[in-house]
Each structure stands twice: as C-alpha cells, then as structure tokens.
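Thread amino acids onto this structure.
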C-alpha cells in the first residue's frame, strides 16, 4: 500500500486563481490554435448526439464549443457568473452541482477536470445529473504526449496549462466504468511541440506528422466520449412451494388400529 506524499511532484493550481490564468493562456497564439483543433473534433462528434438538454462546463472565459450541436436547450456552468445570448448560464461548483438528478442529456467538460481539486468527485457529481443513455464528452490534456513531457520539465512552475492535473484517458476510463459509463470513442489532437515559436515548430514538424500517422492517441489534448448505461431490472416472480407438496403421503390402509383395554376387576381377573 502506498502512502500519500507530502511534497507533490508537480506544482498544481486550483481554486479561483485558475480562472484568470487560464483565460489569459487561451488568448495566446498557442491557446487559440488549440481551441480551433478542439472545435474541429467536437464539430464532428456533437451533431450525432441527440437530446433535450446540454450543459457545458469550463474554466475562466467561456469558450462556446457546442455550436454544432442540434440540442436547443444549452446551459453553461461555471463558478463565476457569465452572460450569453445562446446559453443559459448557471453559477455552480462542479463538485456540488445545482442540477437535478438525471436531468441532462449531454455534458461537455472542457478542461474542467484538469483544474479541479477533486476531479473524481466532480465526475461522480456530473454522472448523477446525466440521464441513463446520456453522453459525457471530456476534453483534457494528455500526460502521455509531447505536452506531458514538456509538463515534466516545467513541474515546478505555476504557468498554464502545465499546473493542471493532466489526467490520463485510461484513468478516466476506469473512473467512468465504476460510474456505469461505457467509453464510445476517443480522439486526440495537438501532436506537435507545445510552443508558439514558428521557427521551432517548423523544425520539429516531422514530430507532428509521425504523431498523426503512428501515435494517433498520443496527442497533447484528447476528446473522450462515453455513454451512461441503462440499468434494466427484470422482475422475477418468487416461486412459493405449496405446503401440501412438502408433506409425506401416508397410506391409510395398513395402519394399526388401536387396541381396546379390558375393564379392570379388583379380583385380578377380567370380566368376560
């Protein structure tokens, strides 16, 4: 049994300070390019998922990722108040959702688990709000990629996005399985080096080419889609045995008749 460590190997940032830091990073050239690649994958995934209610979660400045979805009722859930003309914004913590049980058809978690202090609890709370047969779409940073290698060298920094959790998709798959979800598909993107320097990226462009051809699941960002299993209970009628069947049949004939006693006489004899 392994005990928890006192000193964490990676410097992680959680709480309210994440929102402005991640918002600033998504406005950079590298962040904007990553958002474009994420939207390209979601634009191919969301049109095939149907339902009545969709909720998207995010960190910092809202990134509207569900434009390609055919679902009309869209919610945006964030810890900070937001405004939108297309979404109904709800202010709530991810690990304490202000949503009714089994009220959501599709949930999009945009890097929400990457910067949550208790991602397993947040995922369990989101699974509570999803109806049986509903879908969950998780967008996260992949630790088994060039981005994960860069995070290893920047483990002591609080810069974004390297201070996130970087949850493995295989670990998420195990968590989802415990919550009665089945993974339907997995795609990844951002195979190149995580740098905005065009000269460096062009020099290592062959790495991105190899990633797209050979390591198709080793991109810096992944999109994982899972469906909540429908639990069907078949009622079983109990079979009660009749009491009469458990009794032993005793034949009437052949039973010895009780003998009759003769009256007792004081003289020791019996009356004839």
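Threaded sequence (272 positions):
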């Amino acid at each position: 049994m392994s005990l928890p460590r006192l000193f964490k190997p990676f410097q992680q940032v959680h709480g309210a300070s994440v929102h402005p830091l991640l918002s600033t990073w998504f406005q950079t050239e590298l962040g904007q390019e990553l958002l474009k690649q994420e939207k390209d994958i979601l634009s191919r995934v969301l049109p095939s998922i149907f339902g009545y209610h969709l909720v998207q979660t995010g960190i910092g400045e809202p990134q509207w990722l569900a434009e390609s979805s055919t679902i009309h009722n869209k919610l945006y859930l964030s810890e900070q108040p937001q405004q939108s003309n297309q979404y109904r914004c709800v202010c709530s913590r991810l690990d304490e959702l202000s949503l009714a049980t089994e009220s959501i058809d599709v949930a999009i978690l945009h890097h929400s688990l990457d910067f949550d202090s208790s991602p397993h609890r947040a995922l369990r709370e989101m699974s509570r709000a999803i109806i049986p047969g509903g879908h969950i779409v998780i967008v996260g940073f992949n630790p088994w990629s060039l981005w994960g290698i860069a995070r290893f060298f920047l483990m002591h920094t609080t810069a974004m996005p390297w201070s996130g959790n970087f949850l493995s998709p295989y670990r998420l798959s195990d968590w989802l399985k415990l919550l009665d979800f089945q993974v339907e598909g997995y795609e990844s993107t951002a195979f190149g080096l995580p740098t905005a320097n065009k000269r460096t990226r062009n020099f290592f462009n062959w790495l991105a080419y190899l990633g797209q051809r050979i390591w198709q699941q080793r991109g810096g960002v992944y999109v994982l889609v899972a469906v909540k299993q429908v639990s069907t209970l078949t009622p079983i009628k109990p079979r009660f045995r009749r009491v009469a069947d458990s009794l032993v049949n005793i034949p009437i004939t052949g039973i010895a008749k009780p003998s009759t006693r003769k009256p007792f006489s004081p003289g020791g004899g019996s009356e004839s």
